[in-house]
Fold:
Amino acid sequence: GESVGLHLPTLSVQEGDNSIINCAYSNSASDYFIWYKQESGKGPQFIIDIRSNMDKRQGQRVTVLLNKTVKHLSLQIAATQPGDSAVYFCAENGGSNYKLTFGKGTLLTVNP
Amino acid sequence: DADVTQTPRNRITKTGKRIMLECSQTKGHDRMYWYRQDPGLGLRLIYYSFDVKDINKGEISDGYSVSRQAQAKFSLSLESAIPNQTALYFCATSDQTGRHGYTFGSGTRLTVV
Structure:
């Protein structure tokens, strides 16, 4: 999994499997978290966000889980598709309303 | 048209040259940001601006300057480019709450030789 501050980890899955990408954050003051997807040659794209008053939030094929006790965030992608291949990274706001701190990302590769 | 447009997409420049990267947005957002992305280091904040009259340094502002010419335009300048400024540069915008995520441009790949 990913931690704000480490080398880029990789995750390889088969098409159709579920993917879980992890992120450990360090700032206990953070109350807003976002997952981004970055495809090769493109800018980061917003996937889903979650506020600290929630433990889980679902989108289309994606779910974000937040565990504030251990400062851990995860992104679950259901029925992973080749188009999901990208770098995924989390961001935290450190309790501020103007600045995000980004993790280094996890490279997801989907094998057909 | 893209919500956040960066120009140029790619640029190769020589050490010591002045270069400007431009960003324009149609989101109507007040807040704009410049980030730098390096392999293994993630996205790092260079400068940010909350409105036309507001400019703030980020964590790695040395060697860079910015100009907020209008609500929709935020440019980044390297006064005297050096090779370790070779990176991928992203402009981003957000609304006033900062709690609906950022919208990023497609990036400018800058190489300083």
